[in-house]
Amino acid sequence: MIAVNQLPLSFCSSNGFHDFMSVVEPNYKPCKEEAIKTRLKILSSNIEELIKNDLQDASSICCTTDCWTSISQESYITVTAHVIDSNWCAKSYTLTTHEMDKRHTAENLSEQLINTFGKWDITNKILAIVTDNAKNITNAIPLINPEIYSVKCAAHSLQLAVNCVLKNENIVNIIKQCNKIVGHFKHSTLAKTSLEEKQELLGLTKTTLLQSCKTRWNSIYLMMERLVLNRCAIFNVLADRTITSQSMAQKLEIKEHEWLFIESLIQFLKPIYVTTNIFCTENNSSISMIRPLLKQIIEKHLMQCHENEDTIVQTLKQTLASEIKRRFSLEWDSTESVLLEQIASFLDPRFKDLDHEVLSNHEAIRSKIKQIINQNNYLEPNEITTASQEQQNKHRSDLEYIFGINNEENDLTKEFQNYLAEPQLRFTLDPLEWWKTRYSKYPTIGKLAKKYMAITATSVSAERCFSTAGNIVTRKRASLSPENVNLLVFLHQNKQLMI
């Protein structure tokens, strides 16, 4: 209960709990805080053992990491692990959220990650690490192992691309005006109550206005969307002189052409908002989705011009499209190294035909996949041994022996061609379910898919740990030791493993 509900360690010593238990079970003896800590540590050890077993069974692991500063000004680093198990189920585990008392240099960050990987005995299994765009952490990954892929969080990269657009003077002025209106209704009880009354009279859902946050562009989108939905109710409140003075109403007024501009901005930003939500959904956030989704955004939304569309919005669309292409290397050509995202997209049955890539680049991507397959570096040593033994046990005819036919090579070629011939899966269906039913048919490509499709598109799972930590390290609990913070966050984040 303490771990799941993020309660204080001293909860069982509280007067309220004593009074409650005196009614439920008068003979109950409450546990002391030290006894609770001991039991939580035992529970933590049991969960650690379960996670270690799952990680040892995985052929490769994707990790996400991020840093956070608590309300007591203590710095923490968190690491999460992501795998696809033998049943083709995506699993995520929080490994640690421990204090980092050193400067956040690339060297110190790499040391922290190396220690964490060593503790969990997964150093040689790390395929990729997903981080935000900060230079210190992106520079830290090669220091751990040059062969580990350093993946930038897709949601954060989208945020940076949108931020370039939001710097436009026209948008800055509109955002300021929207914030003024929201601020007025947040700080005036009379205006807020009146707004609720107007919403009820107009048949609108009773909703509060939302204030934007500088660090999250989607809050600007949500603020504008909520304002447009409540436009009539807001106008009625501002027009009522018993509620709003004339000087205040003039100060907060949004003119008709500005409302039209806001509506255009909402329509313009909506596909980016939806895509960000898709990337941040833990069950569907494979890196294989990044390039196909962004290509759809550009071609079907940013490059499409609507009738009577504001010229400023058209310019903003072009700017955003250019930023997305640059940050995600969408204008890739076959002379460059094949990207990790392209490998994952090919192995995802929803995007395997590479419709989102230029036709002339298809062969380069497929050749890279063949090269990885032929290298056999995706197989574990015991799998290689088993595969070679099975191959040696295969019956070879005299003609095969004379002509020197390589059965393994033929099998791989045939498997690859059959996979290409498969109809592409509908994008709304589950790719892992598809692989689960066809793994026996395409075992070689399937092993590769299990590795690359486990790589997440964002580092959201690490950031969610800090939301949990923020509920644990509060103003009333700011003196919690880093050890106890790590213990409570670990238990809460992995609560699905509690028995």
UniProtKB/TrEMBL annotation:
It is found in: Nucleus. GO terms for cellular component: nucleus. Keywords: Metal-binding, Nucleus, Zinc, Zinc-finger. Residues 415-494 form the HAT C-terminal dimerisation domain. InterPro entries: HATC_C_dom, RNaseH-like_sf, ZnF_BED_domain_contain. Its main location: nucleus. Pfam families: Dimer_Tnp_hAT. One of its GO terms (molecular function) is protein dimerization activity. PANTHER family: ZINC FINGER BED DOMAIN-CONTAINING PROTEIN 39, ZINC FINGER BED DOMAIN-CONTAINING PROTEIN 4. This is HAT C-terminal dimerisation domain-containing protein. It comes from Macrosiphum euphorbiae (potato aphid). The lineage of its organism: Eukaryota, Metazoa, Ecdysozoa, Arthropoda, Hexapoda.
